[in-house]
Design goal:
The chain is built from 8 helices and 19 strands. The protein has 370 residues and is α+β, with helices and mostly antiparallel strands. Strands 3, 4, 5, 10, 11, 12, 13, 14, 16 and 17 form a 10-stranded antiparallel beta sheet that branches. It has a 9-stranded antiparallel beta sheet with strand order 6-2-1-8-9-18-19-7-15, sandwiched between helices. The radius of gyration is 20 Å and the shape is globular.
Amino acid sequence: MFLDLLNKVVDQHANKLPFVIYRKPNEETVRAIFQNDTQLHLATNFNESGFVFAPFDDQKSTLLIPENDRIEAEYKVKKANKTNEVDAFRNDDVAKQAYLDKVSKAIKEIQSGSFKKVVLSRLLTVDCKTKPVDLFLKILDYYSTAFCYLWYHPKVGAWLGATPEILLKTDNFRITSMSLAGTQKQIQNMHPVWGSKEVEEQQLVTDYIFNTLNNLVFNLNVLEKKSVKAGNLWHLRTKLTGTFITDNFAKIVKALHPTPAVCGLPLERTKKFILENEGYNRSFYTGYLGELNLKEKKQRSSNKRNQEQQAYSVLKNTSTLFVNLRCMQLMHDHAHIYIGGGITESSDPNKEWQETVSKSATMLQILNSI
């Protein structure tokens, strides 16, 4: 029962013991993994099994909640009354000017040939005295097509979010990744029309992922580019699929993170620019998180009338890692909301600021609804 699962999460948090509770996109099953001590486990070779939580800086450790105690339950989404009344959190002229200055500096670096694209982010801090579990329930109701999670470790803190972007997904030896870039605010009954800036930004990410995976993945295919909706925003998405060998898995994760969608191109130059110019520590924002090497039962036949085949099932090894976007960190009586966007030569600083404002609505909707 979902209530039993939720009560265990509440008790776990009260006892200051690590856990993660989450739901995959377009599913009703909510899963949770619990840890019975406060040890800080690390994923070192990606042969481990559990739930990983990785920071933006790939030189720092990837955390792991081992798969020792895993529970799942069904949750029926309640109708959410969304609001656009988030302006009270937006009117910060100092923060706006600081972000405009960073974007302008990045554009000058691009024009000088230092790099092609860089992703710049900012931090928005708001009051929040709501219990983490209550925020998580709101996220479940608001964002059914996103990966929704609440992650906690007493030595690290609490994070939660609703991210639309898969870093990679594996099903035995099959692998899927995606490039997700370009952002437009949703307008009712209108399909997005993409400009050259968004198309260029998305293509840079797609090309990078293809070139990165090409020597590690067999039969690599690039699927058709599509417009996809995440919350109140539209994005451009391209999926890439192929097959891989187990020995390459850790290499694939390391090669993909961070992607140009969260860092830029070339990788090392833009990462250096971010660390020197953003003015704060991203921590786990634009890192990745998700299931690592979990075993899942699968019926050999999906035809309910085929009772003979239904009697047999096979175990498959799956990993599903998401980029940690549209997220917040809970700190005492405050929530730190992380938001950013990709900067190219054709970027307009004011439009880039507005894009971060639009993206902030994902988490602000949750705080405003309590």
